Structure formats: structure tokens, C-alpha cells
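Re: the 304-residue chain
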Amino acid sequence: MHDGIDHHPMITEPRRFFDPAVDSVDFQSKHLLENYTDILNADAVPVNVAGDGDCLFHSIHTFYPEVSIDELRARCVDELCLNEHYYNAIVTKMGLELVDDESVEEHVLRILNNQQYAGVLTLAALSSVLLRPIMSIYPHVNDSDQYFEILNTTFVPRTAGLVSDDEPLRIMWSGPNPEVDRIWRGNHFVPLLTPKQQIPVSMSTDAIDHSVDAPKDDTDEQQNMPLPMFVQYATASGKPLENLRIQPHGNATKSTRPFTSTIPAVLERIRSQPLTSNPSTVYKDALQDVVQTKAPTLTTLRDR
């Protein structure tokens, strides 16, 4: 078996982003994630996998959909058998015997069969098989008990020693709803994928130093009301600014309030009007002459 595995290396790049067309949310695990871990919803989605005893292999299969759980099991068993002394030492070094007292040999003989619960030795071996760290996330349902302290850890590939700079795969321990006066123990594994990120937005803001004359009123103070105008552009990264769509502020038609615009022609038209002109009227008239084109959403800013 080893010769066949050795001649067919693993795929190196895992799938990381949640795809609603393929994945479904595990809402029980989502509840545990939200209430008993420090991980934000915006950073992780627990994915539903079969709870048939092979849930850890199903979880890894979520990251590597082209690799079957049978292949993952075979590679894991091969890794444990060839490096038995190393993994026995890891159990002692990381204090894992407090949560799993199986020897490497006992563990291998058990997981050779389908639908047999995997554990910390499987996680450690899979990290070496995949050549990637695996972050083990255990909810603090029982506060910071020994299970929480030991199982919130990162397993690194055997060849990397005890440190790795690669981004880890995240595996969460899940299980039943917590009950009062009962010790909670995880009995299920789920993978955590990252929500698909939106297109990065680059922002730039420019201030225009100009005063727009307000309509003549009873007081000299209001005759020349300074209306600083701010132009804020929002575009998808790499897109030109010339196709921006104008979106006037909701109060822009009131002559007693500052207003904004992103079209230089509109600003110039307001500046060129006589003192007695109503700036809001000029603003509305100027906007009617502007052809709006579809573009990324534009946010405008009212000076406060």
C-alpha cells in the first residue's frame, strides 16, 4: 500500500470558501460556534457533513473534494504505521492521553474499518498526510476544562517539526445541545469554511475648497453660507472613475443644508451662478442634464 501512496502525492491546495450551491450550514454547530468560541460568523461557516462515524474524513473531504474518504483513510493509516514512535511521542508531548488513551496500534486497528470514530491521532496524522496544519477548535461549553485546554490546538505536519507558516485547515468539534449540570463532550467533527469575500472596494475622498452663495435672507449671516462639498468615490478595485453614477444626498434639495455632487460640471455650474440664485434649484437643474450610467454604487457624504 505504501508504494502506491508514495507514487501518488496529495493535492496540495484545499478548497476554502463556502459555496451555497455545494455546501449546507450545520446550524447546530453554528450555535456552538457563535456561543462557545471566539470565532466570528463573518470568518467561518460550519459545514454539514454526515455523522456516520467517518465525520472527520468527510470534513477533510470537504476541503479536498477530489480525494475520497477511503483514500484519506488509507493515507492516514500508512502515515501512522510508518511513524508509530513519532505519534506515540506526540501524544505524550501534547498531553493527548488525557482525552484519548489509545495507542497508535490500537487506533490504526480500529480506524481500518469504516464508520469508526476518529480522534486526535487521526488529526495529527492527517496534518502530515496533507502537509498542512490542522487547527482543532473545541467549544468552551464547560468553560476552560482540560478538554478545552488540550483540544484547542494546531496539529502540524511531521516534517515541519512543531511550527508551520501555512494557513491551517479548521476542524471544529461539535455535538449535542449543552445541558445544565451535564458535562458536554464533542462527538462530531465539522469543517469550517470561509464565507465568499466580496469584491474589494477602494475609497478616495477629496475636499473642494469653495463657498456656494445661499439665497438672500433677512440676516447678513445667511447671505453667504459656506457649503463645503465633499466628493467620495467608491469603485471596484481597478475600475476607472469616469463611469461613476451620481447619487445625490437626500437633503440636497434644501437650500439651508449642504449638498454634494460628484460631477465636476454640476459643481462648476453652481459656482457660476449669481449671488441671488437658489443653489438647490441650480443643483436640481444641473442634475437633469447629467446622463447617469451604470457603475459601482456611489456613496455621497453630507458635511455635518
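The beta strands are 45-46, 134-137, 153-155, 169-174, 188-193, 201-208, 229-236.
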